[in-house]
Amino acid sequence: MSRGAAGAITAPSLDFTDGGTGVSRDRLVVIGGDAGGMSAASQARRRRDADELEIIAIERGTHTSYSACGIPYWIAGDVDAADDLVARAPAVFRDKYAIDVHLRHEATAIDLDRREVTARDLDGHGERTFGFDQLMIATGAVPVRPKLPGIDRPGVYGVQTLDDGAAVQAAVRPDRTCAVVVGGGYIGLEMAEALVRRGLDVTLVEAADHLMSTMDPDLADQIADAVRNVGITVRLGESVTGIEGADHVRAVTTDAGVIPADLVVLGLGVRPNSALAKSAGIDCGPTGGIVTDRQQCTSHEGVWAAGDCVETFHRVSCRPVHIALGTHANKQGRVAGINIGGGYATFPGVIGTAITKICNLEIARTGLSSRECAAVGLSGVTISVESTTRAGYFPGAELMTTKIIAERGTGRLLGAQIVGREQSAKRIDVLATALWNGMTVEEMVGMDLSYAPPFSPVWDPVLIAARKAADAVAAAR
Amino acid sequence: MSRGAAGAITAPSLDFTDGGTGVSRDRLVVIGGDAGGMSAASQARRRRDADELEIIAIERGTHTSYSACGIPYWIAGDVDAADDLVARAPAVFRDKYAIDVHLRHEATAIDLDRREVTARDLDGHGERTFGFDQLMIATGAVPVRPKLPGIDRPGVYGVQTLDDGAAVQAAVRPDRTCAVVVGGGYIGLEMAEALVRRGLDVTLVEAADHLMSTMDPDLADQIADAVRNVGITVRLGESVTGIEGADHVRAVTTDAGVIPADLVVLGLGVRPNSALAKSAGIDCGPTGGIVTDRQQCTSHEGVWAAGDCVETFHRVSCRPVHIALGTHANKQGRVAGINIGGGYATFPGVIGTAITKICNLEIARTGLSSRECAAVGLSGVTISVESTTRAGYFPGAELMTTKIIAERGTGRLLGAQIVGREQSAKRIDVLATALWNGMTVEEMVGMDLSYAPPFSPVWDPVLIAARKAADAVAAAR
Questions:
Q1: What is the pTM (predicted TM-score) of this model?
Q2: How far apart are CA A320 and CA A322, in angstroms?
Q3: Which residue of B has its CA nearest to A423?
Q4: Contact between chains at B459 and A330 (C-beta distance less than 8 A)
Q5: What is the DSSP letter of B310?
Q6: How do residues B165-174 score in pLDDT, each as one tens digit?
């Protein structure tokens, strides 16, 4: 099916032909030019060339396919320029993939009956309507922004898009000396570290009584120590009540006092940006994310979704979850694109694997935490072991803690967490792969993992933990 | 059952009592005081205390439970002293585990009818006989030492025991300027690097036309480049014909010439040290290793074996294999010890996982190589991918090559190899865990592995390789 670039065709069953070429084309419209949307677009293109499938992408911001996870490292100075975080620029999509990318266009409405998307040109050139045969929704997530007095004051930043990152980057100036980061999760901690490395006095405020709610409290304590050691003031169990200032932020008020702030970064997590889909009548789930089937198709045929705007299912809890991570967005986008392109692929769900580096600590998790086990009625036996990343005698051997939660009775691995120094946390992938395959900790003990002194003790930390967990499961029977 | 320390009791059915205490004890004799033997001894002790089980260990050398894999790092200077390589000294076994360790005693005969072991005191104090109820054979491996003219000349060293390591250490003196390493496998390469770091001119001679026969030739080429880059002369496809010299080695002769040598290190692999068991009538298999069942019991009841002296089974090839690695020895010893102690445990076999660091390269493998697949009649589809260890834009991102062999038709993972810079090779454990669980490469693509810019690109190298392999399997159908 063929349409002029700005034309709106209402009847998808009509078979238009492309300006005189005689070839019939479908049109795919992609809303959102980051991981989920552009993975889908590229995969669809690989299977159907431009003669068969016209692809139009609508992106609110000024970049495509960038690494939002890289923003804290750009702020910290580890990465030189925003462009370094861009995997594929709009010109690449246009030239190599024949994908017509419309930047600074915000989709404002989806009409499923007319099969068209309306988008507003953010540079003031009015509205356009794009008809579609297939629609890919990849609208991402929006930072949680509590309704606090002064929250919209200049100097308060979220960190979700590359444009957000640029705003923080511009805000770090010699006359700004103190920053408050609200929220002690991954992004909050990464941003706190980045800002302290840029020379600011940083206070991190967390309402819960430990950092990183995705980790168990005992491991979170190690993280708090590491964060304090680099000079970040950590205030736990303290709720922000407002943001003060006149034309610019001046302080953050909490239920325990006032913290001066020239700069406030919100790290309170994100929620699915699914409002557009929802108002079009597309089903959303209990997490607020768009519901899809295993092929990433939404409640409406020919309408697909992927990435931070969808909910997916957790293979351990068997519950729908919203986990905003580029790695899921890429995989889901690829699955959607293969299906849009006429192939067949499914997304197998997630198990909650995550990793980060905060100060000198590597931190990782997979499966369910103790709290998450309790929430779904799974009874776990929990062990922790301290071991070294290399053979104890080898230069550079560092300490690491591995925690395992195994199901009482069966010994099935339910979750694992690692906190340690260099070369510790990426071992979570071994635990994730074992968990993915439904292994018991007893079965894991015998696994043939690699050993040489520069890489691990003769019993790999994962195996030591599995062994101890197997003993604990047996003892609890 | 009780016996005096040096007494020989012939009838195991007789129930002696311990010198007046009235408690009956069994006796476990362990031949070999390294990983396999002492793991078994400690596990047995954990389940049966000294009142129930007397444990005697016989060790030919002067150390117990040491890391033979650490020897090259000790020679190189990364590790200060031999003692650093000792996990548990004899005194620890005596004092903490009540294990009576006889060092410098070489077991010379096993009499299964009389259930006794004869051992020679290597310090010239004659022979002793130890009766046993249970026998643990952990005699390890011996370096392959081809019958070449001059092979026994002073200055020619194997690297198998800590005492061997001490001999090489003593041989590295200012007046020794050139070394020849024979054999380009793990130990040969590690020793070549150690000696070049100690300032010697090192030539490595390998009869095959590529290094590291356990890796596929294309990856072995990368290794050869790295080895040559640190100044090691690599001579491939060249067979050693003899060792020249008078009272000390002076040169190594090959079918292509003469190489001056003040020092020769043999890195030609090892074979199971099973002669003692074999002459006692205990079954050995096609690899030369002692045959055991899944519980590590030999062909004779109450006689157990573990470690480098046994053969085990390969879960992918379904063939018996001899793989001399401390990690297997420890696991097998643990299994034997649990069973000796009255528990129940089995060893699940191996999949050929191995890792090392040579010069600036990390090298790892699991499963079968291309050659090994062919040898057992498995038809594989093979792919290689280059990727980065961290997000491409992240400081310290390094190149790595991941190779995957998947079964034609089914797509089942058969083997994988990694060669790359820092933080690449330990990823082999993810592939090993996937292979252990019989995953197909298509199934692997969806796995929830950890992602953050300091640890991997958004598509982890393992997933990129799996994806490419899945495409290749589909294309080959």
A1: 0.93
A2: 7
A3: B423
A4: yes
A5: B
A6: 999 999 999 9
